Amino acid sequence: MEQFEITPEQKGMRLDLFLLGMYPEHTRSFLQKQIKGCAVLVNGKSAKPGASLKPGDVVDAEFSEPEEPDVQPEPIPLNIVYEDPDVILVDKPKGMVVHPAPGHTSGTLVNALLYHCTDLSGINGVMRPGIVHRIDKDTTGLVIACKNDTAHQSLAEQLAAHTVTRRYYAIVSGNFREDEGTVNAPIARHRTDRKKMAVDPAGKEAVTHFRVLERFGEYTFVECVLETGRTHQIRVHMSHIGHPLLGDTQYSSGKSRFHTEGQCLHAYIFGFVHPRTGAYMEFTSELPAYFKKILSALRKDCARP
Fold it and tell me: What's the predicted TM-score (pTM) here?
């Protein structure tokens, strides 16, 4: 159960629209059904979807799970980096969502994997078959999926133990004073904007190591290494220390002269112990063309007298 206290800024909001802001992954019709089914209480009592909220009202929400749609295989091309009977490693392009969600059930990496593979692990259900970790829609690079539950369990345990190698390239705003460092700041769902994450003392442990690769004055090319794997971790941590990612409109209000269609972030190294052989394997993904183009432009700017 989640609990929210209405702020003065939220005065007069309809209950269903308030919940839609808190739970953007759900549809308004789903939320209205939950309200009518008494899964949502205002000050401990049932309410109507159109109920007007007042400052100090306490909203409790404990939803029943929506029915999972039937996710279909789709003949979407995949850039396969490595594949064997246990795992498949894919180089994901910008703009591709990793797994389906309510209201978005096609065109995802899972749809493509279901078409390519005869089997995927079922631990995460029909919406996320084979998926043990994810990267954001506009982040490019390496994603691993598992073809059976044994492999899935092994990779999940490695991720939980922080023994998987995950290195990212990023272009961030501003110039670092230091050459390297660590951001150790817990992350939780943003308290008022449910589409975002935020540094929050009540959140889960999150650790990101960074190293400066090139400086361009207004921007810096960095390598980020994940010790933990929270949602939007690099994006949140870099914004938290005053260096939001270039193109990341969700965590930065600044505008850029570059058209990036989302954050400049690339998962370029993924390393793990193979669940069957026990051998350590590490794979690298080349920077995508858009990323190289921006680096080239920044280097030319710095070379000018």
Answer: 0.80
Residues 55 and 7: beta-carbon distance below 8 Å: yes
32's tokens: 């209205």
- 141 sits in which H/E element: strand 140-146
Q: Would you tell me how many other CB atoms lie within 10 Å of the CB of residue 154?
A: 21
Residue 70 pLDDT level (bands cut at 50, 70, 90)? confident
236: three-class secondary structure by DSSP: helix
For 292, residues 6+ apart whose C-beta sits below 8 A from its C-beta are none
Query: Cα angle at 145 between 96 and 186, to 5 degrees?
Result: 75
Side chain identity, residue 301? D
pLDDT band at 69 (very low <50, low <70, confident <90, very high): low
**Three-state SS annotation for 43-88:** CCEECCCCCECCCCCEEEECCCCCCCCCCCCCCCCCCEEEECCCEE
| Catalytic residue IDs | 136
Q: SS3 of 256, please?
A: coil
Domains of the chain as residue ranges with CATH: 2-61 (3.10.290.10), 72-161 (3.30.2350.10), 162-277+297-305 (3.30.2350.10)
